[in-house]
Amino acid sequence: MFLIAFFHIILLLPAINAEFSSRLLDSVLQDYAFRAFVMPRTGIPYDGNVPFNYTGIKVSALRLRSGSMRRRGVSRYKEFQIPIGVLEQPYVERLILVYHNLANWSDLYYPLPGHIHLTPVLGILTYDASNLSATNLPELDIRPSKNPILVNFSSVVKPVPMGLSPKCVYFNLDGAVEFDNILNGNVCKTTKQGHFSVVVEFTTAAEPEPEPEPEPEPASGGGTNGHKSGGRKNWVIFGSVVGGFVALVFLVLLIACLKKYGKKKKIDRMEEAADRGVPLLMTKVGNTKAPIASETRTRPSLENEYLP
Question: Which residues does UniProt assign to the signal peptide (predicted)?
Answer without folding.
Answer: 1-18
